[in-house]
Amino acid sequence: MSSNNVTVRQAAMDAPLLLLAYGVLRLADGFDGDRGPGLAWNLGHLAFFAAMVLFGVLAASLVALAPAGARRVASVAAAVTVFGVACFLWVITGDLSPGFRQAMPLPAALEAAGPMAFTLGMLTLLGLLVAARAVPVRSPLLFGAGIVAVTVHLDLLPLAALLLLAALAPLARGAGRTARREPVAAPSAPLRSRALH
Q1: Which chain regions cross the lipid bilayer (predicted)?
Q2: Where are the domains of the chain?
Q3: Which of 10, 63, 119, 150 has the fewest CB atoms nearer than 10 Å to its CB?
Q4: By the 8 A CB rule, do 25 and 40 touch?
Q5: From the CA atom positions of the chain, what is the Rg in Å?
Q6: What phi and psi, each to the nearest 5 degrees, are found at residue 5?
Q7: Is residue 179 over pLDDT 60?
Q8: Does residue 196 register a pLDDT over 70?
């Protein structure tokens, strides 16, 4: 198993699980009616930070699983995703460090552009993986549903994380590795004629 496959499997599993931890800790932090610095707040934001780093790693690693003819598009989608991840990390760092937030606030334009870039980049990558038969069609649909859940209300973060986990589960199980081997299988007429979709 290549190091890239190991990276994809670990990131696909750990990123949504860390996001789930953040969602649960966020809910716990709000039990007293106030959200702010404290153990649950800090641990949750550290989990969120780690989750976003892993999403960035995952996006970069998925380029190699895209169809050969779409690698350039996949590279752009990965770069867009990483840009969105960087915006998230900027905000999270500010949440953990008020001094950083005051000294280097994220520009308002990037507050909107960052989440959009992350979403569009990841959906594009997952769409390309559907074409490569590395993930089923439900993967981008579930990922999109998870993003919608967060958009509706931040208290739905645990649900969103579970949807993202379901979306990325085929990658966590190594489906991408299987799909990458398929084109080099023993040639046959059905295999040669089968169109990628």
Answers
A1: 46-66, 73-92, 112-132, 141-168
A2: 3-193
A3: 10
A4: yes
A5: 18
A6: -65, -40
A7: no
A8: no
Which one is predicted more confidently, 194 or 11?
A: 11
Single pTM value for the model = 0.85
The string of pLDDT tens digits covering residues 93-111 is: 999 999 999 999 999 999 9
Closest by CA to 19, choosing from 61, 65, 51, is 51
CA atoms of 168 and 175, how far apart (whole Å): 10
Q: Using an 8 Å Cβ cutoff, are 26 and 44 in contact?
A: yes
User: For residue 60, how many other CB atoms are within 10 A of its CB?
Assistant: 20
| Token pair in block for residue 98 | 């008020």
Give the whole-angstrom CA distance, residue 43 versus residue 49: 10
- The Cα 135–Cα 50 span in angstroms is 24
- The secondary structure of 1-36 as a DSSP string is --HHHHHHHHHHHHHHHHHHHHHHHHHHHTTTS---
Enter the tokens of residue 43.
């641990």
Dig out the tokens for 36 from the structure: 């702010």
Instruction: List C-alpha distances in Å: 108 to 59, 104, 180, 182, 186.
Output: 25, 12, 41, 45, 54
Which residue do the tokens 């702010």 mark?
A: 36
- In the chain, the amino acid numbered 175 is A
Tell the residue number behind the tokens 């153990």, with chain if given.
Answer: 39
Residue-level length of the chain: 197
